Amino acid sequence: MKPAIKRFLLHFLLIIGILVVIVLFTQSWLKQFTRHGQSLTVPDFSGMTVEQAQRAALAHALKIEVLDSLYIPNKTRGAVFRQIPQAGEKVKKNRRILVTINSILPRKVNAPSLVGFTLRQAKAELISQNFQLGSLDYQRDFATNTVLEQKYRGTQLPPGTPIDAHSVIDLVLGFAPENNVAYVPSVVGLNFEIAKDLITDHSLNVGTVRFDATIHTSSDSLAAIVVRQDPLESTTIREMGSRVNLFLSLPTPL
Q: Is residue 21 included in any domain, yes or no?
């Protein structure tokens, strides 16, 4: 073999060898840099305070960042109730977990003006302004099921008064003696919120609410349905504002 050809082959093989080394080094570096094949399972931070979530995230080589805060009644104030990525997802080390927390202080809103509204109109107005309908108290008046007064925590509530969002507002309504008849609807098989809405639509109040032994958590109570009611459906009650007692249980699996 001529010396020139021999040198060319040696140089060519040397270049090929160098390229192979570079490729292998690059692959190794990229694998280490991106932690290829290494992932972490995102824990569930719901119900934790921000401080608790940060400590838990640090233990899992993750980072917590508060994305937003909203006020939701019946949830622990200052606690995480939503997260991205969700619990159970696979992520890389040092990934940021965006959380939404329940505000410690609810925002203030002005009380509506419901006097003169029918019960149905008042309910719609409360829902549209993120309030909750409380108890229905009936007094003699010629205008049946018309709001005579609105109350908050037992006292009269003037329209425009700043109160917490999602507050419960009680109503005083009129009834004419000749119209003081309410019919109990059937709510068996419905969840509590739907049952309550149907009961108040019939000018009645929810009375005692009892959960059976199948209910252990708040999630269970949300999934529970009415299995018995007292009085029974289609029973005529001579006084509007009377109470319907409810008994709830988790639905039986099919």
A: no
